[in-house]
Specification:
The complex is a heterodimer of chains A (95) and B (517). Chain A has 95 residues and is mainly α. Chain A contains 3 helices and no strands. The mean pLDDT of chain A is 91. In chain B, helix 9 links the parallel strand 7 and strand 8. In chain B, strands 1-3-2-4-6-5-10-11-9-7-8 form an 11-stranded mixed β-sheet, sandwiched between helices. The model of chain B has no long low-confidence stretch (mean pLDDT 96). Classes of the chains: A mainly alpha (95), B alpha/beta (517).
């Protein structure tokens, strides 16, 4: 399935990326070529094959329900681009 | 030019013995490597940060404790370089990305914690492709790394710094990560030994995630014996990584010298196809003859789905990456765009749309929060990371999920089944690591698909979760190293290392060193 410029713009919003015109142009071509390559997977018959999400078959791993120390707030905020010592700060969300 | 200490040419296992017997001190050894770095690093660029001061302080403390007769860890005094993707709370962890340029992790990854507990001396943090995405280390946001065998060529990637620092004797041991070949491929291109363990053998706790079902941490060194030593120091179950395997860790460095009797080696017919360089092929076939001379039986096996491995990988890995990298939002940590400029940009766009009475455009205009995310991420990520996030987001988006992601997961199972069948016939699979020797810097940067195809022989092991090793098996006419890849069934690292050691003992390829001074 060919990828269009419009697809790339839509996906860039889903991916929370802001692309300029030149980037959209280039990515449209590059992604189209990569997708054309991976489209060869359609040739492989996979009827009745279970998808394999993990290299090791995963099973539930239970941990005892014990209270353990968590990251202190000060350390959790230490790398934040903006904070007020209590919370992460973001630009106004409403309005 | 100062004369460098001969210690830098000595294998880590031998250095450890000398440290334990008091023939050398940790300070003397660390200083030898700090001197080598001072002389050579400017030409290679393997390290993002050399932490000489911290390393010497660690070495002083270890020597002091040894003098006092205290119990020391199993790597006490041995310098180790760490890829800048494993969290270490005593330094920054950047993943070679602008996004994490100033990130200081609040905790240690399990691998770094194990190295510290083993009293290893942490020399510095090595360069890599941004977020481990790439095969040449050219995707680092900060610097390129040069191949010590030819400074105009790439060291491979993504653990290019990890391989180059070992090849150039700027560290005896180093830690890399391998999601599609990122330890084995640079090890092959730089003429060192690199091992990707079974998925789950080494904890991923505190490893910055790229593709969680494929990522694995592993050792690089100049000999198989040294790789065995480092592997047994970092492997093991970790309650903090629910995918880590609860299996005992054998003493790989002890059993490695026992030859494998009645060894059956498999050659994959699909590996010897179009695209394989003739010099690489001859070196690999010669290595197989060495195994035969050691009593091994060689059989042809087939991995019929291996031709789909790269396509499968380049669906699954970007899908997982797009999800994992969603966490970089400019809120909790990492780069955030300039808020004033961002709000001004939005106001300007709104004015234009209002002037044009573009109702649809106004409806679609980003909120300030969404624009903050988008600008922060676009400024923080490099081209390859954006490409993979876009690819993964596309493949996971409504209408394409079944066609790409689910399909790839099914083919992944077929790839694993091929290995299961092959390992009923043979004990180890042998083949090339890459189809060509080291390529020139810049040669593939404008062709993402060509760069992806470099992973042809390595990605299958990640998809199947099996262990693999790359070790030197010759040189081409240009003097560039050629790597031999061995693969084993899950959790058979011991067999893999014993098989690799047998070959290593029968030749001296691993003793060839690049001309550095």
């Amino acid at each position: 399935m060919a990828i269009t410029r419009d697809d790339v713009e839509k996906v860039s919003l889903l991916a929370r990326l802001q692309l300029n015109g030149e980037e959209i142009e280039r990515l449209t071509g590059e992604l189209a070529r990569i997708v054309e390559y991976v489209d060869h997977l359609n040739e492989v018959p996979t009827e009745g094959i279970e998808p394999m999400a993990h290299a090791v078959e995963v099973h539930n791993v239970f941990a005892p329900d014990e209270i353990q120390p968590s990251l202190p707030r000060e350390e959790a905020l230490a790398n934040a681009p903006s904070h007020n010592n209590r919370a992460f700060l973001v630009p106004p969300v409403l309005g | 030019m100062p004369t460098l200490s001969p210690l830098i040419y000595t294998p880590a296992t031998e250095l450890l013995r000398r440290l334990q017997e008091g023939e050398i001190s940790a300070v003397e050894l660390t200083q030898a490597y700090v001197d080598a770095i001072a002389t050579r690093e400017q030409r290679i660029g393997a390290y993002l940060r050399v932490e000489a001061e911290r390393a010497l302080q660690q070495a002083i403390a270890i020597d002091d404790r040894r003098r006092k007769g205290h119990t020391l860890g199993k790597l006490a005094g041995l310098p180790v370089a760490v890829k800048d993707v494993l969290c270490d709370k005593s330094t920054r962890t950047t993943c070679a990305s602008r996004m994490l340029e100033n990130f200081r992790p609040p905790y240690d990854s399990t691998v770094v914690a194990k190295l510290k507990a083993a009293d290893a001396v942490l020399l510095g943090r090595t360069n890599m492709d941004e977020f481990a995405m790439g095969g040449s280390t050219e995707n680092s946001a900060f610097q390129i790394t040069r191949n010590p065998w030819d400074l105009e060529r790439a060291p491979g990637g993504s653990s290019g710094g990890a391989a180059a620092c070992v090849a150039a004797e700027m560290a005896p041991l180093s830690i890399g990560t391998d999601t599609g070949g990122s330890i084995r491929q640079p090890a092959g291109l730089c003429g060192v030994v690199g091992l990707k363990p079974t998925y789950g053998r080494v904890s991923r706790y505190g490893l910055v995630a790229f593709a969680s079902s494929l990522d694995q941490v592993g050792p690089l060194a100049r000999t198989t014996q040294d790789v065995a030593l480092l592997l047994e120091s970092i492997a093991g179950h970790d309650p903090r990584d629910s995918t880590s395997l609860d299996q005992p860790v054998p003493e790989y460095s002890k059993s490695i010298s026992e030859p494998l009797k009645g060894l059956r080696i498999g050659l994959v017919q699909e590996h010897f196809a179009e695209g394989l360089d003739s010099e690489v092929e001859s070196a690999v076939r010669e290595a197989i003859r060495v195994y035969e001379s050691l009593g091994a039986v060689v059989k042809m096996v087939s991995l019929p789905h291996s031709k789909h491995a790269v396509a499968t990988y380049y669906v699954i890995a970007p899908c997982e990456a797009s999800s994992n990298l969603a966490r970089y939002d400019g809120v909790h940590y990492g780069h955030r765009t300039d808020q004033v400029a961002m709000l001004a940009e939005l106001a300007e766009e709104r004015k234009l749309l209002e002037g044009a009475k573009d109702e649809v455009g106004l409806e679609r205009l980003d909120s300030s929060l969404v624009r903050m995310y988008r600008r922060s991420r676009s400024e923080g990520f490099g081209q390859e990371v954006k490409r993979r996030i876009m690819l993964g987001t596309y493949a996971l988006s409504a209408g394409y999920y079944d066609a790409y992601y689910l399909k790839a997961l099914k083919v992944r199972r077929l790839i694993r089944q091929d290995f299961d069948h092959a390992f009923c016939e043979v004990d180890l699979i042998a083949g090339p690591v890459t189809a060509q020797t080291a390529f020139r810097l810049g040669e593939k940067v404008d062709d993402p698909l060509a760069m992806y195809l470099v992973d042809l022989y390595t990605v299958s092991a990640n998809l199947a979760g099996i262990p693999g090793i790359s070790l030197p098996c010759g040189f081409d006419k240009a003097g560039l190293p050629i790597g031999l890849q061995l693969l084993a069934p899950p959790l058979e690292e011991e067999r893999l290392l014993r098989g690799a050691y047998m070959y290593e003992q029968a030749n001296d390829w691993h003793k060839h060193r690049p001309k550095m001074d």
